[in-house]
Write a structure and sequence with these properties.
Order of helices and strands: HH
Low-confidence stretches: 63-70
Number of strands: 0
Shape: elongated
Radius of gyration: 13 Å
Structural class: mainly alpha
Length: 70
């Protein structure tokens, strides 16, 4: 079975990266209600993704963020 492209996967890389930044930031909502360890983990993951976006990392499309729908 082949994976048919979706509108999202067919979007230009800059559009996908912009959407990813929005998703990462939305994933940080209500961060203050989580235990400190979870806050740290979520912030570290967000920082990693945002750094990859800023550095135009080609492997970014393969990253997965727990709790963030793609």
């Amino acid at each position: 079975m082949t994976d048919a492209p979706t509108p999202r996967s067919a979007a230009p890389a800059d559009v996908r990266r912009t959407e990813l930044v929005g998703e990462v930031m939305a994933g940080l909502d209500h961060l203050d209600h989580l235990p400190l360890e979870e806050q740290t983990a979520k912030l570290a993951e967000a920082q990693s993704v945002l750094q990859a976006v800023l550095n135009n990392d080609p492997t970014l499309a393969q990253l997965g963020i727990p709790g963030v729908a793609r």
